[in-house]
């Protein structure tokens, strides 16, 4: 008797979480890493952005911080 296979869950965020569609094309939501270059998005940690690849951290200024509800 054949066993049923369950598809694996995808890890990470969907692609739509990294881009926003506007009239003039795609806009990146998160900044890219200054060291690693394009293709490496930085994670948003409230008061800072951090690269998961190289560990580079960029701190936000008071005016750029978004409040989480």
Describe this structure in words.
The protein has no helices and six strands. It is an all-beta fold and 69 residues long. The chain has a domain at 30-69. The strands form two sheets. It has a four-stranded antiparallel sheet, with no helix packed on it. Strands 1-2 form a two-stranded antiparallel sheet.
Supply database-style keywords.
single chain; 69 residues; mainly beta; 4-stranded antiparallel sheet; two-stranded antiparallel ribbon
Please tell me how large the radius of gyration is: 17 Å
Output the helix-strand order: EEEEEE
Described by the principal axes of the CA atoms, the overall outline is: elongated
Indicate the proportion of strand residues.
35-45%
Uncertain stretches: none
Mean pLDDT, as a whole number? 84
Multimeric state of these chains? Answer: single chain
What is the count of DSSP helices, taking H or I runs of 4+ residues?
0
Termini separation (Å)?
51 Å
User: If strands are numbered along the chain, what order do they take across the biggest sheet?
Assistant: 3-4-5-6
The biggest beta sheet is recorded as: 4 strands, antiparallel
Look at the helices and sheets and give the structural class. mainly beta
Q: Would you count the extended β strands for me?
A: 6
Helix content bin: under 10%
Compose a concise summary of this entry.
The protein is mainly beta and 69 residues long.
Write the layout of secondary structure elements.
Elements (H helix, E strand, L loop, with lengths): L18 E4 L2 E4 L3 E2 L3 E8 L3 E4 L5 E3 L10
